Amino acid sequence: MHSTVQWLDKVAFEGTSESGHRIIMDGAPSYGGENRGARPMELILMGLGGCASFDIVTILKKSRQDITDVQCKLSAERADSVPAVFTKIHLSFIVTGKNIKEKQVAKAVELSAEKYCSASKMLTDGGVEITHDFKIIEVAE
User: Fold this and answer.
1) What pTM was estimated for this model as a whole?
2) How far apart are CA 67 and CA 105, in angstroms?
3) Which SUPFAM superfamilies match (predicted)?
4) How far apart are CA 60 and CA 91, in angstroms?
């Protein structure tokens, strides 16, 4: 896998993925940024949410759960000193669908956390405490 990050100006950068997708990153105004894009650490947090959500969706679909939406809300704490690494991250999944089995969602969350999510594995191996919860929203047939 390859990516390129190109400095634009001040503290703004454009990242280009191997698949050709681009994203703007920018620092906070207190560091000279102009708020033109997400902060790099925000992207790491979103990447974790995307990785785990990918797992949840694919596992639930394979177990024939009739999901209509999956949302992952993340909250993180960072160290007070430099480098301000993540110390704790909590992922809260909201799974919407018809006749969703709680046991299947719990299993999907557990499999993502313990087996499939490479972003989660990388962060926990680096000392980040990651926790999860979920709720199910039933939609009418």
Assistant:
1) 0.94
2) 10
3) OsmC-like (SSF82784)
4) 17
Vertex 35, ends 82 and 51: CA angle to 5°? 70
CA distances from 114 to 6, 46, 89, 108, 131 (A): 35, 19, 15, 10, 11
Q: Which residues contact 57 (CB under 8 A, 6 or more apart)?
A: 67, 70
pLDDT in tens, the chain (141 residues): 999 999 999 999 999 999 999 999 999 999 999 999 999 999 999 999 999 999 999 999 999 999 999 999 999 999 999 999 999 999 999 999 999 999 999 999 999 999 999 999 999 999 999 999 999 999 987
Length of the chain in terms of residues written: 141
Name the 3-class secondary structure at 91: strand
Q: Which residues, 6+ apart, have CB-to-CB distance to 86 below 8 Å?
A: 41, 44, 45, 76, 77, 78, 79, 123, 128
Q: Could you give phi then psi for residue 27, rounded to 5 degrees?
A: -80, 165
What contacts 130, CB < 8 A, 6 or more positions away?
Answer: 48, 88, 89, 90, 91, 113, 120, 123, 124
